[in-house]
């Protein structure tokens, strides 16, 4: 069956630009009509990218906190995500991680990436942007765009942090990770170091 580029993009859950890039790279082929319009073989496209249509794909919600001391916040995040997805009538799953936003090897995050790349995900829901990763969340969002995944951030409209506040949070995150590696996450020396940094941040 030959279909137009817009139909092919919708069927496979990718953007029209993505199909054009695949064609330019030689990954797929398109026939041209006398008027110069592209026509794609649907069976060929499904063989290359065997995904469901976006409307039939799953909504994945993702929650994360950095430490065991924030477990109550993790419970709150999960409850908010479940309530939000249910209110919208979405079929969903919630993935959750307990670990630093600088750690790219967290089990839930890796599962999220794998399922996006497998074409199983139609929507990603977060409470805040930084719950995904402290640095590098834009890479995951670019991956979502490539695979036709809608990104929903529940608290996107909240008052953004100032540059200074973001810088303090980033520094605290980095110091927390490296001090835990040096002294142990539960050591007295580590706790004292983090508390000193928090006091300095409050003064700023």
What does this structure look like?
The relative contact order is 0.12. The strands form 2 sheets. The chain has a 4-stranded parallel β-sheet, sandwiched between helices. A 3-stranded antiparallel β-sheet has the order 1-3-2. It has 3 domains: 47 residues, Multidrug-efflux Transporter Regulator, Chain: A, Domain 2 (Orthogonal Bundle); 100 residues, Resolvase, N-terminal catalytic domain (Rossmann fold, 3-Layer(aba) Sandwich), CATH 3.40.50.1390; 41 residues. It is α/β, with parallel strands linked by helices and 204 residues long. The longest helix is centred in the last third of the chain and has 21 residues.
CATH superfamily of the largest domain: Resolvase, N-terminal catalytic domain
Question: Would you tell me the structural class of the helices and strands?
Answer: alpha/beta
Which stretches are poorly predicted, pLDDT < 50 over at least 5 residues? none
How many distinct folded domains?
3
Instruction: Quote the distance from N terminus to C terminus.
Output: 63 Å
CATH topology of the largest domain: Rossmann fold
**What is the architecture of the largest domain at the second tier of CATH?**
3-Layer(aba) Sandwich
How are the strands of the biggest sheet laid out side by side? 5-4-6-7
Largest β sheet strand count, sense and barrel closure: 4 strands, parallel
Which series of helices and strands comes N to C?
EHHEEHEHEHEHEHH
């Amino acid at each position: 069956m030959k279909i137009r580029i817009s139909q092919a993009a919708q069927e496979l859950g990718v953007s029209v630009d993505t199909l054009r890039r695949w064609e330019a790279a030689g990954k797929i082929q398109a026939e041209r009509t006398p008027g110069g319009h592209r026509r794609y073989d649907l069976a060929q496209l499904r063989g290359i990218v065997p995904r469901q249509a976006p409307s039939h794909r799953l909504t994945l919600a993702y929650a994360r906190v950095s430490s065991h001391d924030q477990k109550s916040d993790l419970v709150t995040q999960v409850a908010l995500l479940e309530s939000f997805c249910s209110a919208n009538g979405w079929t969903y799953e919630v993935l959750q991680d307990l670990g630093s936003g600088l750690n790219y090897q967290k089990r839930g995050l890796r599962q999220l990436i794998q399922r996006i790349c497998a074409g199983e995900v139609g929507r990603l829901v977060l409470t805040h942007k930084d719950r995904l990763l402290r640095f590098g969340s834009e890479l995951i969002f670019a991956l979502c765009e490539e695979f036709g995944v809608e990104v929903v951030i529940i608290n996107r409209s909240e008052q953004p942090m100032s540059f200074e506040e973001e810088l303090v949070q980033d520094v605290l995150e980095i110091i927390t990770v490296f001090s835990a590696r040096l002294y142990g996450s539960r050591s007295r020396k580590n706790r004292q170091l983090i508390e000193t940094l928090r006091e300095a941040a409050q003064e700023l």
